[in-house]
Amino acid sequence: MTKGASRTAPPAPLARPSRLRAGARVAVVAPSGPVPADRLEAGLAVLRDWGLEPVVAPHVLDVHPELDYLAGADADRAADLQAAWCDPSVDAVLCARGGYGAHRMVDLLDWPAIRAAGPKVFVGYSDITALHEAFALRAGFSTLHGPMVATETFLADEPTREHLRATLFEPETVLTLGLDTAAALVPGQARGVLYGGCVSLLAAATGTPHARTGARGGLLVIEDTGEEAYRLDGILTRLLRTGALDGVSGVVCGSWQECGPYEKIRAVLADRLGPLEIPVIEELGFGHGPTTLTVPLGVPAVVDAPADGGRCTLTVEVPALLRA
């Protein structure tokens, strides 16, 4: 790995979808874990309050008869996503929740048909990272790492909902991201194209046929939940050893919910990422935390981590979504 490779120009950004308008039809899918019906209904009510027309995919409330951590059969979950994406009347595809199972069904999707259908708004995080990477690498589409409609954070936290709403309807108003918790783990400034998500999902994909083999010109955003310090060490070490982080220009960290004492997590991040000699921001405010900012993936951005303790930010250089 070459230190300083972060200063290279970023690759071409991915194709962006159009922003939403009142009356837009949005499909709700469940690519991963089972969805609580009461939370789904509450989330749909929020979408309707925004002036959207939510359409619930047929298998969203399914539960696999034997593997009850899955929202139904792999083929059914894939079919829901495929049908929503290829339906020209659907403007966006929103995930109901994460959990586990997206990478079980990602290869069941017809990626040439998805590419032919063109980009659409796609929102999710956590296990949905597997799909974010697939849309980027197999379709060339940008996506949104953001809150899901049947999750506690989306339903309980107004700033989380408002940031997603603004991103969907008025993305030029939310170009600069960063809660007050954001701090410079490694100071500096860098530019690149945003990618990433749940870091354990990124590590799990290494060695698979469609995984990234490097990160030249990319700005990596990472977060996770339920991974103790030694497990996070192993995850980052795997990414480093496989070359998956080669050339990355900077790293932006979100929340580490239920990952143990943060001082231990911070020590792992400093130990594993510090030697890359690139800017690293900690606790920007996305992922599994109490407030979840929506982070556009596949667009150029600048990370600014001042050495003097000033405000740390991530600024996207173009709105996440195009004007229709």
Secondary-structure blueprint:
Elements lengths: L24 E5 L7 H13 L3 E4 L17 H13 L5 E4 L6 H4 L5 H7 L3 E4 L4 H11 L3 E3 L6 H5 L1 H12 L6 E2 L5 E4 L1 E11 H7 L12 E8 L3 H13 L8 E8 L4 H12 L6 E3 L12 E3 L2 E6 L7 E4 L8
Parallel strand pairs: 1-2, 1-3, 3-4, 4-5, 8-9, 9-10, 10-11
Antiparallel strand pairs: 5-12, 6-14, 7-11, 8-13, 13-14
Helix pairs in contact: 8-9, 9-10
Describe this entry's structure for a reader.
- The protein has about 325 residues and is an alpha/beta fold.
- It has 10 helices and 14 strands.
- It has helices at about 35-50, 75-85, 100-105, 110-115, 130-140, 150-155, 160-170, 200-205, 230-240, 260-275; strands at about 25-30, 55, 90-95, 120-125, 145, 175, 185, 190-200, 220-225, 250-255, 280, 295, 300-305, 315.
- Helix 8 crosses helix 9 and helix 9 runs parallel beside helix 10 (about 260-275).
- The longest helix has 13 residues, at about 35-50.
- The protein is globular.
- Residues about 1-10 have low confidence and may be disordered.
